[in-house]
Structure formats: C-alpha cells, structure tokens
Amino acid sequence: MLEDETGFELSGILARGSDRSRQLAQDLGVPLFQSPDQVPSSVDIACVAIRSRAFGGSGDVIAEALLRRGIHVQQEHPVHPTEIRRLLVAANEGNAIYHVNCFYSHGTAGSTFIRFLREWCVARAPSYLSLTTSSQLLYSSLDIVGRAFGGLDDFVVAPVASWTAGTLPAGVDTPPFQILHGRIGSTPFVLQLQNYLDPEDPDHHSLVMHNI
C-alpha cells in the first residue's frame, strides 16, 4: 500500500491494462484492476479521473458501477447535470456518497481569490462580478465563485439578447461567447460563456479557463 500525508492508502489502479497503466501500478506497488467488478469491496472511496460520457469517456459508467456496490466516488468534472442526477440516485441506492471534484478552488490561484474576496466582503459588497469561461469549466468556475461568496443559494442568471448568424453583418462570424446576466445576492453578475466545444478534444478547444 502507498500512503500519503493525508493518511489515505492507494489500494489499486483501475485502467484498461495498457503498458503505461501496468508500469504505473508496478511502480506504485499496487494491483491493476481492469473492471469495476475487480475492485475489492474493502475499498472505501474511488477517484474517477476519466472523461464523462458527455466528453466521450466512460467515467459515468464506472462511477455508477462502483456506487451501486457501496463504494464512495469522487468524480472529476465536467459531468453533465443529467448524469449527476442519475449518479446521485445510484449513490442513494448503494448507500454511498457521490461527489463531483472541483480541484481548482484548492489551487494557489483559486484559494487566494477565495480568501481575498471573503476578507474584502467583510467591509463592503463587490460592485459587480464578471466571469469568462468555457462550458467544460463552468462548474469549477461557479464553485470558486460560490466558495468566495459563501454559497450560490441566491444565484440567478439568464441569457441576454445576443447576435445570431442571421442578424450579424455580412462576413462577420458569430461571436464565440454567449452573454448572460444575473446576480449573487445584491451583486450584479456578467457571464461570458464559450458557446462551443469539441467533445473529442475539449481541453484544447477551451479559449479561456477561469477569468474572474
């Protein structure tokens, strides 16, 4: 077993059995599982870092199989809301916990922004919030904002009138961002959301990550 500073022990790696995954399991001194059914019931939690179905992967299928066996799952975002609802049902039926991981809020940039805004908001409310991101990073962007504001219970957003291909001047392409307006409590909110992605290669077609 490989134990880190948090006290967790790595029980194994679930992969398809490529040379790379076999070598990684050997280097870490843990078994390689090639099916969710092979994961021992003694495992407490699984980290599913495989693309979800909406992005051409099988992460949702693996997560559901583990949850129904009673194994807690932390899945890497992005995950489509429909899949999240289905996996929450599977978690309930398996008496397990399901969580979508938003790791960006724990990085240096995210945690610094969150801490600064929390401290600043003690004295005064922000004049406005502007967020530009892509659809595959919207979940983690809103996680950062929600942690900074203390939650998103009073978050309201709706699209505003925007250019369409039929109303643009001749020779002008449709802008790559959809504009939405809203508020978080009393703070006005402007969201510029990239309106396209390539499901085969979403990371390389994201124009902006988290511009807040």
Question: Can you give a write-up of this model?
Answer:
With 212 residues, the chain is α/β, with parallel strands linked by helices. It is 27% helix and 22% strand. It contains five helices and eleven strands; from the N terminus they run βββαββαβαβαβαβββ. The protein has helices at 19-28, 59-68, 81-93, 108-120, 138-149; strands at 2-3, 9-10, 13-14, 32-33, 45-48, 72-76, 98-101, 129-133, 155-159, 177-184, 187-194. Strands 8-11-10-9 form a four-stranded mixed beta sheet, covered by helices on one side. Strands 5-6-7 form a three-stranded parallel beta sheet, with helices on one face. The protein has a two-stranded antiparallel ribbon with strand order 1-2. Helix 3 (81-93) links the parallel strand 6 and strand 7 (98-101). Helix 2 (59-68) runs parallel beside helix 3 and helix 4 runs parallel beside helix 5. The longest helix is centred in the middle third of the chain and has 13 residues, at 81-93. The radius of gyration is 20 Å and the shape is globular. The relative contact order is 0.11. The mean pLDDT is 87.
